[in-house]
């Protein structure tokens, strides 16, 4: 059965997919079409009151990209606690990490997906 999200959340997620940051576009090129060792990811997925950047539902993994405006952000900690309470593991990367070393970011994600990290 398909998940039902409030229309506002679906519209906002769709708008966020169409207006991706450069870092999101770079990482999505690694995650889309099962390119990352066959794991399926979706992007800008509504989960409860939040929209997660990238989600692998099979492995209950959420990948978030953050700009420096998120440094020490209590809202991010609260959001992570909520997502963890639903059984997800949350990985956070700085946008700068994706710009400088996208292969390293992708490798770390694979390690987590395969239970090696």
Automatic annotation (TrEMBL):
Top-level division of the source organism's lineage: Bacteria
InterPro entries: DUF559, Endonuclease_DUF559_bact, Restrct_endonuc-II-like
Residue ranges of every copy of the DUF559 domain listed in the record: 10-113
Ranges that cross the membrane: none
Protein name per UniProt: DUF559 domain-containing protein
Native source species: Peteryoungia desertarenae
